[in-house]
Amino acid sequence: MSTYRHFEDFAPGTIIDLGSRSVSREEIIAFASEFDPQPFHLSEEAGKGSLLGGLAASGWHTAAIFMRLLVDGLLGQAAGQGAPGIDKLMWRRPVYADDTLTAKAEVLGGRPLRSKPGLGVVSFRFTVTNQRGDLVMTLDNPILFACRETAA
Amino acid sequence: MSTYRHFEDFAPGTIIDLGSRSVSREEIIAFASEFDPQPFHLSEEAGKGSLLGGLAASGWHTAAIFMRLLVDGLLGQAAGQGAPGIDKLMWRRPVYADDTLTAKAEVLGGRPLRSKPGLGVVSFRFTVTNQRGDLVMTLDNPILFACRETAA
């Protein structure tokens, strides 16, 4: 991406590649130790005895890694003003140590905010896949952006 | 909590206190530096120039802190088997340095999983408030639990 994006730059149907990032066993355990210390996020043995089938990243860790890709691949070069929430998030497959996650954004639509002139909200469908091309996470997420004409 | 909870132990309407946790300026900046390096999550000055009104935690950091409260206050003493996703999450107010977050769970309902005998899904509405009693985050989240009879 070479352009700095404002609200007007997100046409419905636009697809934006957000890049890739790997996650190590050490990172999975460190994140889980701090934020989600359930056994299947902390040890291979407990993971094998669970529905996850092996040591697997906390879903919140997957979400945080996705966020980093979103900042590096889009928001770092855009007039983003935060997000009010998530409409729907699905953890579709476990994320295991040394998986490489790739994220993609699709613009579903957008509208100017009447309550906050100069801002618009863009609705995105984000997808995260692993190195085998399997979907591991999807989320629908509205994000606020400054409009071009008022941001100059 | 002194009991180990299974699927059958979550009657609709049950309210469970999940405890409290504070977040420091250093933690806000460390999390954001790794996962969400947008300016308003990294410096007071950029935060003041944003909709957030000051240095504010990444929404994913708030979610991760909530998750830790959920594990310490409930899942650490329950037959939890992970979660398929989030139905809806709202970041309602910014979380600032030295805020103390308190989380609460309300059981909305539950049903056994036909596709996976011995498991049930419980639907929760979680709320996170700050030290002033303001709601900062709400999320609706289904979580899987082993049933009592098959888990013995």
What is the topology?
The structure is a homodimer of 152-residue chains.
Chain A: E1 15-22, H1 25-35, H2 44-48, H3 59-73, E2 85-86, E3 88-91, E4 100-112, E5 119-129, E6 135-146, H4 148-151
Antiparallel strand pairs in A: 1-4, 3-6, 4-5, 5-6
Primary descriptors:
MCH/BMMD (chains A, B), MaoC-like_dom (chains A, B), Thiol Ester Dehydrase, Chain A, alpha+beta, homodimer, five-stranded antiparallel β-sheet, HotDog_dom_sf (chains A, B), Enoyl-CoA hydratase (chains A, B), 23% helix
Please explain how this structure is put together.
The structure is a homodimer of 152-residue chains. The radius of gyration of chain A is 17 Å and the shape is elongated. The model of chain A has no long low-confidence stretch (mean pLDDT 94). In chain A, 23% of the residues lie in helices and 33% in strands. Chain A has a single domain, classed as Hotdog Thioesterase (Thiol Ester Dehydrase, Chain A, Roll). The two termini of chain A are 20 Å apart. Chain A has a 5-stranded antiparallel sheet with strand order 1-4-5-6-3. The relative contact order of chain A is 0.24. With 152 residues, chain A is an alpha+beta fold. In chain A, a hairpin with a 6-residue loop joins β4 and β5. Chains A and B meet through α1, α3, β2 and β3 of A and α1, α3, β2 and β3 of B.
